[in-house]
Amino acid sequence: MMVQRNIYRIFLLFLVINLPLIGYSQCKGFAKRKCIPKLSPFIHNGQLNSTTLMEGESAELMMTFHSGQNYRVLVCAQESLEKVDFKLMDMDRNVIFDSEDQKSTNYWDFDVNSTQRFIILVSAKKPGKHSSGQLAGTLVQSGCVALLVGFKN
To answer: What CA–CA distance (Å, rounded) separates 109 from 97?
Structure first.
């Protein structure tokens, strides 16, 4: 009986430790399968930046963009997240591009004249009102969000 209880505890501990890893690898798999092909005709830079966000959460990433390159920044999210936007900002946090201002496009193509570091802020928007218009949304959705960068010479 005691041995069985210890095995059960070890199994539970194993699950608790490994569940976040399982979620991360599923998100990474989603990014590879569904998002990287959307970068075409740009070449993926090899960095796979993905995470799970809940509605109302955001994530920030700093990246260096090199002069003489044409880039595509792409944000790709699972359908469970209704609206995901991104902003590209300089190091002083001045907004250079805001996808919300561009009808919530999920990518932006641009040239860089001099090597620069930018901040990319990805936001999963908070849920709106219930379809009846009277109830606030109570279920918060979560999903995988990938930020990918591609380039052309």
So the answer is: 10
Instruction: For residues 1 and 28, give the distance between their C-alpha atoms in angstroms, rounded to a whole number.
Output: 41
- Measured distance CA(65)–CA(87) in Å, rounded: 15
What are the φ and ψ backbone dihedral angles of 79, each rounded to 5 degrees? -65, -20
pLDDT in tens, 26-72: 788 998 999 999 999 999 999 999 999 999 999 999 999 999 999 99
Cite the beta strand spans of the chain per DSSP E.
43-44, 49-54, 58-65, 69-77, 84-89, 95-98, 107-112, 116-124, 142-152
Strand partners, 72: 109, 150
Q: Which two tokens stand for residue 98?
A: 């805001």
The torsion angles phi and psi of 4, rounded to 5 degrees, stand at: -65, -40
Q: What is the pLDDT of residue 153?
A: 74
DSSP string across 62-89: EEEE-TTEEEEEEEEE-TTSS-EEEEEE
Q: Are 144 and 91 in contact (CB under 8 A)?
A: no
Burial of 72 (0-12, 13-18, 19+ CB in 10 A): buried
Q: Which residues contact 36 (CB under 8 A, 6 or more apart)?
A: 44, 148
